């Protein structure tokens, strides 16, 4: 007894005053959708003045969990504490009253309204007697405080994606949010816009706000957060301080076993000329020149990467080849068919191009805008594509069903039922897998992908890289537009760098450095 007392060294923890109560505590939260357990007895804490990354593979339950904090779903089991008090969140209004604001990936702004009008939309007492000057002043104060750039009087239809996102964030701050949840905010941002968002988030944190961010990009997790919490298949796996985490350790934690983050880059035995683009010049509908004198050749048996700052003409290039973008100004696009015959594609209808086996896989910001139908199941969505390819309108359901099975197996798409569950019930990343998988499974001779891994978790991203490499080894000419330079340099045999619609150079992917490519992206002829 005596010795015990003598030996007792007061630990610093004993002496600490009780630390501030957490902003949010979830205890034993469970949410089921039919037989799917999206969240299984989750415990999660978010502290004040903290940025927490919520990490997990596609379909692991991140959005579902956050939707219970924003009042969209109500838990089947478990308790939620906000600032130490037990609460019930039954509607988005309840969430607002608790000063919780969520920024969803699909914005909910009214296009014809200004930023300021959207920000006060739905607030009690504001209808009809909106004091424009007062609102604009308050909006500017918020912007100055955290470092946003926003024009309160700008109409939403004139805004870029990043500006719209700013309006969404200012909107929840205007309503007094102290707890902010951002669901994949960077999926639609350029790297420069992402840096700006992170600077704003750090200012909010200094101001004592608590923030949860969902992102699949591990370098972003490491750059912005204080702590990382990991979900796997609806379970809470654990959390680590970001300072003790690495991309590899986080991936292993997320997947549950060691994962290799390497891309193989085998060389094909032979290269076959497949697509020849000569002096292509393209203007958009407004008459603005988007591509100027672009020339290159794509070969079967190689992956040609297209690098460039967002908006440098990547979209117009792929769309011109696919026949979606009208080539007004001039130039030639020649497809060389397996018999060696050249076919001019300029002015050809997109459907005719598809029938020639030239396949454009285009992954847009709006997944449901590009030939996926949310109300249909996976098999039906695969059928849509086969139909467009010229097979009979329905009838042969066998092939689409087999193809759907293959996509689900190869890409590990999580769905309760391939033939029943409508696509809109799948998690965001799983919808993306269906879109990419469907294009790859069409046995194209030219495969073009733009931002194929947007919204995909890291493990699935590597699956996609491997599938593209497999396509290349089977003789397909793969054209890969991407924004991650590290990936471009690991995956591609050659890289074409665009700058302001011009080709700054075409370089060897094995020997060029990231710095050289970066330079060429900002200056025509900056490298080589
Ligand atoms: N309204 C719903 N009805 C039926 N199932 C649903 C519904 N919402 C989500 N699910 C299922 O719950 C699981 C978790 O989905 P959730 O959207 O939370 O995943 P996530 O971690 O956000 O994934 P991602 O990274 O792909 O966005 C998935 O299996 C999904 O299909
Ligand atoms: Mg999600």
Notes on the structure:
The chain is of the alpha/beta class and 528 residues long. Helices cover 33% and strands 25% of the residues. It is built from 18 helices and 20 strands. The strands form 4 sheets. The protein has a 6-stranded mixed sheet with strand order 6-7-8-3-9-10, sandwiched between helices. Strands 16-17-18-13-19-20 form a 6-stranded mixed sheet, sandwiched between helices. Strand 14 and strand 15 (342-344) form a beta hairpin. Helix 13 crosses helix 14 and helix 14 (398-410) crosses helix 15 (428-440). The longest helix has 16 residues, at 191-206. The protein binds adenosine-5'-triphosphate and magnesium ion (MG).
Q: How would you summarize the topology of this molecule?
A:
Layout: H1 2-7, H2 12-15, E1 24-33, E2 36-46, E3 51-56, H3 62-69, E4 77-82, E5 85-87, H4 92-97, E6 100-103, H5 115-120, H6 132-146, H7 161-174, E7 179-183, H8 191-206, E8 210-214, H9 218-224, E9 227-232, E10 235-241, H10 247-255, E11 272-283, E12 289-300, E13 302-307, H11 314-322, E14 330-336, E15 342-344, H12 350-355, E16 358-362, H13 378-388, H14 398-410, H15 428-440, E17 446-450, H16 458-473, E18 477-481, H17 485-491, E19 494-499, E20 502-508, H18 514-522
Helix pairs in contact: 13-14, 14-15
The chain binds adenosine-5'-triphosphate and magnesium ion.
